[in-house]
Write a structure and sequence with these properties.
The N and C termini lie far apart (about 80 Å). The longest helix has about 30 residues. The protein is elongated and about 95 Å long. Among the domains are: about 160 residues, Ribosomal Protein S5, domain 2 (2-Layer Sandwich); about 90 residues, Rossmann fold (3-Layer(aba) Sandwich). The chain contains 17 helices and 13 strands. A five-stranded mixed beta sheet has the order 1-2-5-3-4, with helices on both faces. Strands 9-8-10 form a three-stranded parallel beta sheet, with helices on both faces. It has a three-stranded mixed beta sheet with strand order 11-13-12, with helices on both faces. By secondary structure, the protein is of the alpha/beta class.
Length: about 450
């Protein structure tokens, strides 16, 4: 009996290939997506059948499923060093008398003949995918969920494979439509190019958690990609390096007007003193959590936009996501998560809070603010005097004087902030706005969520 891989492709039917697959892997219930029949006799001898297994959109792929034979004699299932690492995710059989046996992996990787065999297999795999994409695109798209991890893994680990795969690597939008990079560029170029000429591709990795941010983007007419795969964060970074003037940003990483910045930017009209007051008021009600920081910022988002948004900057969040997949990036994994609490200065509720603060808190702060202003002038004068001297010319008494003035300044700032934070703690509207923003970002959970529900019921 001749094994299937020793026969010519013309001698085998679809049923023969599937039957052989189940003969190799009797525990596997799923049928393979498709297969590649290898048959080379020059400049090396190589036969085999490689199968693309059907997988979900997770890293369920199992390595070491390719059986290696030498002239139909089984050798091993460990083919690393013989084929590129990403190809070890495939299933099937390879048979070649030209692969040296009982040698180290490093020897295999440096062997000229093995390199030729490896490159040939990689090219045949890319050619098969390209052929399917060009000739049967609808079928290719049906299989994309299972192919995606494999294609991304190959593009990330093999530059030649990237060059071949770039034309059939697909992006998926939230409606499930699939695009090549060039097709998606054509779709988005006119609407999603920012004022600096950068094409901005928005993406979400959790449609439920990021629903509010997605709605803000689609209301502007923007397209949003779904990037929820295990390798997507790495694929995004690679595409940014390869594609001209193109960047990816998660749809909830900033306010929509900043994600794709156009020429027309509204200005915040609040004074620095008003911003400082509102910042302290909201800080009083923001969560105090280990390894999670909240920073209050201000934007003029329009009267109809939300009063408070919570965003997480693209760069640091992406580095932390990559760190979870790459042990060498532990530095980022250990850093606290940083969130921006964006107060919409145009919103009626923010204006109302500021008005209430001006009425009930500012009268108590008038004298403190005047004292702080005078103290700040003393600190600046002392610091300026020291800056005109060389370090060794500043006396101990002068250093001590500046230290005392600065301490008094910080003490006055602390008293003002305490009054503002007390107002924030005592004002139910502040807590409600903070919790609504946390809820909209998927950050309100457990006891805090239960308190929010009770408070919401009390307000009804």
């Amino acid at each position: 009996i001749h094994p299937a891989w020793t026969k010519k492709p013309s001698e085998l039917t679809k049923e023969d290939y599937i039957a052989f697959y189940h003969q190799l892997y009797p525990q596997t219930m799923e049928e393979p997506l498709f297969w590649i029949h290898l048959n080379v006799d020059y400049p090396f001898n190589l036969t085999g059948i490689l199968y693309f297994p059907k997988v979900k959109n997770q890293m369920e792929l199992q390595r070491n499923k390719i059986q290696l034979y030498a002239s139909q004699v089984f050798v091993t299932e460990e083919v690393e060093g013989i084929v590129p690492e990403y190809l070890t995710l495939l299933h099937g059989v390879l048979d070649s008398p030209d692969i040296p046996l009982n040698v180290s992996r490093s020897y295999l990787q440096s062997d000229a003949q093995v390199k030729k065999i490896s490159n040939h297999i990689a090219k045949k795999v890319a050619d098969k995918l390209d052929e399917l994409f060009r000739n049967e695109r609808s079928l290719f798209e049906e299989k994309w969920e299972s192919l995606k991890v494999f294609v991304q893994y190959g593009m990330l680990s093999d530059e030649k494979f990237y060059e071949r795969a770039a034309k059939f690597n697909l992006l998926t939008d939230l409606e499930g439509k699939l695009y090549t990079s060039e097709e998606y560029r054509t779709l988005t170029e006119s609407s999603q190019t920012d004022k600096d000429g950068q094409l901005v591709w928005l993406y979400a990795n959790d449609k439920e958690t990021q629903y509010s941010a997605i709605q803000r983007a689609t209301a502007k007419g923007y397209s949003v990609l779904l990037m929820d795969g295990p390798l997507d964060v790495h694929a995004i970074s690679q595409l940014e390096q390869k594609l001209e003037k193109t960047r990816f940003v998660r749809v909830d990483s900033d306010s929509i007007d900043k994600l794709i910045a156009k020429d027309e930017q509204r200005e915040v009209t609040l004074s620095s003193e008003q911003q400082q007051a509102l910042s302290q008021i909201f800080q009083a009600r923001l969560p105090r959590e280990e390894k999670r920081n909240y920073h209050v910022t201000f934007e003029a988002l329009g009267e109809d936009a939300d009063a408070v948004l919570i965003t997480q900057g693209e760069f640091m969040r992406r580095m932390q996501e990559m760190a979870r997949l790459q042990p060498g990036m532990n530095f980022y994994g250990e850093l606290p998560e940083g969130y921006n609490v964006v107060l919409n200065s145009d919103h009626a509720l923010i204006k109302r809070l500021l008005s209430e603060e001006q009425t009930s808190v500012e009268p108590k702060l008038g004298a403190l603010r005047e004292e702080l202003k005078a103290q700040t002038e003393l600190v600046e004068a002392a610091r300026t005097a020291q800056n005109t001297k060389k370090a060794d010319e500043v006396t101990a008494a002068e250093r001590e004087e500046l230290e005392g003035l600065s301490y008094k300044q910080a003490e006055l700032e602390g008293k003002i902030n305490s009054e503002l934070q007390r107002f924030g703690q005592d004002t139910a509207l502040v807590g409600q706005l903070v919790d609504l923003a946390l809820l909209g970002s998927g950050l309100l959970k457990g006891e805090a969520l239960a308190r929010f529900i009770r408070r919401s019921q009390d307000l009804l």
